[in-house]
Amino acid sequence: MCGIVGYIGTKRATEILMAGLEKLEYRGYDSAGIATIEAGDIQCVRAKGKLFNLRDKLVSVDSIAHLGIGHTRWATHGKPEEYNAHPHMDTALRIAVVMNGIVENYRSLREELKAKGHEFRSDTDTEVIPHLIAECLMGIARQDLGTTSKFLTAVRLAVSRLQGAFAIAIISADYPEEFIVARQQAPLVLGYGDGEFFCASDVPALVPYTRLILPLQDGEIARLSPLGIEVYNFAGDKLKRSPRTLNWNPVMVEKQGFKHYMLKEIYEQPGVVRACLAAYLSETWEVGTAGSPIDLKLPTALFKDIEQIQILACGTSWHAGLVGKHLLEQLAGIPTTVQYASEFRYSPSPITPHTLTIGVTQSGETGDTLTALDLEKNRRSQLDPSRQPRLLGITNRPESSLGRLVPNLIETHAGIEIGVAATKTFVTQLIAFYCLAIDLAYQRQTQTPAQIGELVTGLRQLPALIEVILESQERYIETLSHEFSDTQDFIFIGRGINFPIALEGSLKLKEISYIHAEGYPAGEMKHGPIALLDAKVPVVAIAVPGNVYEKVLSNAQEAKARDARLIGVTVMDDPEAALTFDDVLPIPAIPDILSPILTVIPLQLLAYHIAARRGLDVDQPRNLAKSVTVE
Ligand code: AGP
Q1: How far is the CA of 627 from the centre of ligand 1 (A)?
Q2: DSSP secondary structure code for residue 317 in this structure
């Protein structure tokens, strides 16, 4: 939530800050602002709403500054008004701060600072920071400086008083040759250019300028100047840190001719599924080949003697976890629970031995998921201090906070996802679970080699089958979407492994089209929700031939008997489906255990086209942010 950027170098800072904020706008868009140092003073320009409002304001502002910070906000403390927009400044207007995160003890700090004469101008928690730094600067005696600058020391002292999770960037008009950043449980990446240095909440803001990056770690503070970057811990000790080269290119963060990032990302799915499979599934394995077809590059001890698995995640990643549970139980025979990380962190399940905990988070930065995993890590270390807790992360961002929290990762190789609605990261999370479940099934011999062979063959076909759906269905779905421009409610039903896809289809629709939608196990409709149905409530049923096919068709008939318009996600050329459904969104024939990778595609397209038809901001839906780093 919230995106921050910072720049020092030889170019005009305003342009670089604005370009960076554009790449970070997915993190929040309630307001935006930048602060630069102009002729010895701070110039701060802020605007309510999306970034274009700030851009409009900047047209009349002439800036030649080579140093500045910027922010795009997802409101937590204080309404999304201009006076609450970042950057925030101290009373004397000499210090400006941007923050991603929350200062939990801001109330007491605010009272303390007010009593000392500091004037507050916003309702935000962030504003305590510039005042606190100003106070620390006043209090620093020369002999306390050590080898670090007075500005850095003041920031360090101020940060030590802050409780919460935050990443901050600070400039001061009195120190026009440097800016300071600090990180405590919120992402912040530093970028190394040629005589210029950057900071940003996420790498897409940096890749147009550099691929040499350094993710700052918790408890670290850095000073960026034209001479380079120095990193310290909060105690003031200088640390030796080296940047690494990112294998991204700037084209990856462009729309490449698509109207929205979401549509581009839907179309990238065949490619990213291929990439994810290439990372873990042997190209040459066939029935009779020795060894597992899967190599997750994880230590075997992680899985030795496990008796159960618990999965922790939020939102779409939680839906991926539900598919994972089905696979781990049905293929590998391992009892598996899936919990909302936001619930688990306050009511964790009783701890059980021989348990593997899997955290699923595409961003690797979701606050609830990280806290739940951290809790689990501590609980398990206390239970058995002699061994490392068995923790595994499934993520698209191995360089994220998750990567530092858990020792074992399955990377999903989806590439950067910018649309707030997760699409390609979801299907690759599913691929990660297929690979994990098949590998465990192989190790535990819960599936015959022939059964494993069928799964492997099916997995290899998936990218081409997704292409078939995209090529044959998009036009039809776009036309169909016109009929739902005024629809107010949708129901999605599915059973077995496709129940989570009903949940995912309904989440996609509600988050980008603002249409109320519910996902249900098809068999549960008769226990209550069927009362909602009439001719105005379309029902989308996921009905794929397999062990629950007839059941789902019967449940769909029950909805039809209540006048609901029936849309079926089912296999191509199925006469029974053609008779049952008013509209068919066909997928190629596939064993039902592999079908979620295909059934979700028409649902993503349906949600996308309904939202686009309604003229909504598909990539940045209201009230949402791509990575939810706050509670
Ligand atoms: C997905 O479309 C959502 N925007 C959201 O539910 C998301 O999946 C959730 O916030 C979890 O994110 P994560 O995977 O980065 O942890």
Answers
A1: 7
A2: H
Residue type, 167: A
Strand 308-313 to 336-340 pairing: parallel
Q: 28 C-alpha to center of ligand 1: Å?
A: 14
Contact status, residue 505 vs residue 309, Cβ threshold 8 Å:
no
Question: Under DSSP, is residue 103 helix (H, G, I), strand (E, B) or coil?
Answer: strand
CA distance 75 to 139: 32
The DSSP 8-state label assigned to residue 281 in this structure reads B
**E strand or H helix at 611:** helix 596-613
Number of other residues whose CB lies within 10 A of the CB of residue 405? 19
- The answer to whether 222 and 181 have CB atoms below 8 angstroms apart is yes
Buried b (16+ CB within 10 A) or exposed e, 100-118: bbbbeebeebbebbeeeeb
Residue type, 628: V
Closest alpha carbon to 185 in 315, 1, 30, 27 = 1
Q: How confident is the model at residue 94 (pLDDT cuts 50, 70, 90)?
A: very high
In angstroms, rounded to a whole number, what is the distance separating the alpha carbons of residues 196 and 9? 4
Residue with the two structure tokens 């930048």: 34
> Which residues line ligand 1 at a C-beta cut-off of 6 Å?
314-317, 361-363, 366, 369, 420-422, 511, 624, 627-628
Q: Which residue has the tokens 């509670």?
A: 631
Pinpoint the alpha helices (H) of 66-127: 106-115
What is the set of active-site residues? 2, 626
Q: Quick check: pTM over 0.85?
A: no
Alpha-carbon span 183 to 48, nearest angstrom: 26
CA-proximal residue: ligand 1, atom 10 (nearest): 315
| Nearest to 168, CA basis, from 240, 246, 91, 224 | 224
Q: Which residues of 62-90 are buried (b: 16+ CB within 10 A; e: fewer)?
A: ebebbbbbbbbbbbbbbebeeebbbbbbb
Counting residues of the chain whose pLDDT is more than 90, the rounded percentage is 80
Residue 34 has pLDDT above 70, yes or no: yes
The burial of 165, by beta-carbon neighbours within 10 Å (0-12 exposed, 13-18 middle, 19 or more buried), is given as: buried
Q: Using the atom order of ligand 1, give the atom closest to the CA of residue 425.
A: 14
Tell me the sheet residues that pair with 98. Answer: 169
End-to-end Cα distance, the chain:
10
CA of 210 to the centre of ligand 1 (A): 28
In this structure, which residue's CA is closest to atom 15 in ligand 1? 363
74: helix, strand or coil: coil
User: Over pLDDT 70: what percentage of the chain?
Assistant: 99
* pLDDT tens track for 249-308: 776 777 888 999 999 999 999 999 999 999 999 999 999 999 999 999 999 999 999 999
The rounded distance, in Å, linking the Cα atoms of 487 and 341 is 32
Give the CA radius of gyration of the chain: 26
Residue 569: in which H helix or E strand, if any? Answer: strand 566-571
Please classify residue 558 by burial: count the beta carbons closer than 10 Å to its beta carbon, then call 0-12 exposed, 13-18 middle and 19+ buried: middle
Between the CA of 272 and the centroid of ligand 1 the distance, in Å, is 18
Q: Tell me the pLDDT band of 142, cut-offs 50, 70 and 90.
A: low
Q: Which atom of ligand 1 is nearest to the CA of 363?
A: 15
